[in-house]
Amino acid sequence: MCMNNSVTLKDIAKALNLSISTISKSLNDSYEISVDTKQKVLAYAQKHHYSPNRLAKGLKEGKSRSIGIVVCSLDNNVIAQMLDGIDTVSADNSYQIIIMQSKESQKQEAACIELLYSGGVDGILISPACETVDFSYLRSLQESGLPIVLFDRLSDQIDTHKVGADNFQGAYDATMHLIKNGYKNIAHLNTNTTLSIATERLNGYKQALMDSEITYRPELLRSCDYSDTQKLNSDLREAILYFMSLPDKPDAIFTATDQISTRCLTLLNKLGYHIPTDIALIGFTNTDLAEALSPALSTVHQPAFEMGQLAAKKLISLIESKVHDQEYETVMLETYIQARASTQSKD
């Protein structure tokens, strides 16, 4: 059954035999209107699913009450959980969200931002594309008064609020977990990007090796092209075959991203390797399927929902702030290791 939700102020006024002005004032909790009238109006409005015209309200307030979000891809557990966090806070503060994906292309990212800006969003939350090296376009929009907050993937090229995970510590903990479980030849699979997310995870891995007096071997580091799924799959396959053909081959792999982690497990199984007997595996991923994979996958879990919530709060505080020279903050949330069968101790 289709329900007509488009009841207007005029409809409510007619039904209750009151003026449109009285209805409007009642809904805005005006002191001029009696409690009885307000309750009657509110009850009718709720029963008939009345929702005020957001655009008209926005024009009156000088705001559209909408937030633009640009992410690399929606096909990603971490991103989906972050968006859920963003949506919760936005809805609680009466903002609607408009989500766009860059598909890891700097050109597409710029097109998304331009579209959101021309559409009149009040602010933008962005997790930059792998390709993005130039932030001048974002900076110029920021200088023109558009609030911008970076989340998940952070950069020093723009001064604003930034919310991410502690990638260095997450990578350090994952590598140390493997070392403590008896693995010494640890390979690392990362992305071919200059974004801090990749360098921090690489540095965390290197630091754990150094602190454990294990020599870093450059041949155990491979980068994958993130531009499309097909390329990522072929790069991963090539990297695994390369690792396993080395005279001193790795006994474990630490993977740096959501897609790499789950795809790596699938490929190792397809290629006939037994995990963790032939090679152990741990990676950054928030997939709910980690427990159900064969074998269950050890993961570095990111507080993605909380990251989204905090990023949205930071952006809304910028949108609604009367102070223009706010002190910006970079917040790094803690990750934690979920140990499962794929990194079982060698002992």
Give a brief outline of the structure.
This protein has 347 residues and is an alpha/beta fold.
Question: Numbering strands along the chain, what is their spatial order in the largest sheet?
Answer: 2-1-3-4-5-11
- Span of the ends, CA to CA: 63 Å
Helical content (DSSP H or I, runs of 4+):
40-55%
Strand content: 15-25%
The major β-sheet equals: 6 strands, parallel
Number of H/I helices: 12
SSE ordering: HHHHEHEHEHEEHEHEHEHEEHEE
**Overall pLDDT score:** 90
| Name of the CATH first level of the largest domain | Alpha Beta
What is the count of structural domains? 3
Shape from CA axes? Answer: elongated
Q: Indicate the CATH topology of the largest domain.
A: Rossmann fold
Protein name: LacI family transcriptional regulator
InterPro entries: HTH_LacI, LacI/GalR-like_sensor, Lambda_DNA-bd_dom_sf, Peripla_BP_I
Domain HTH lacI-type: 7-61
Keywords: DNA-binding, Transcription, Transcription regulation
Descriptors:
single chain; 347 residues; alpha/beta; Rossmann fold; 3 domains; six-stranded parallel β-sheet; six-stranded mixed β-sheet; 44% helix; disordered N terminus
Present the secondary structure layout.
Blueprint: H1 9-16, H2 20-27, H3 35-47, H4 54-61, E1 66-71, H5 77-92, E2 96-101, H6 106-118, E3 123-126, H7 136-143, E4 148-151, E5 162-165, H8 167-180, E6 186-191, H9 196-211, E7 221-224, H10 229-245, E8 252-255, H11 258-270, E9 280-284, E10 298-301, H12 304-320, E11 330-333, E12 336-338
Parallel strand pairs: 1-2, 1-3, 3-4, 4-5, 5-11, 6-7, 6-8, 8-9, 9-10
Antiparallel strand pairs: 10-12
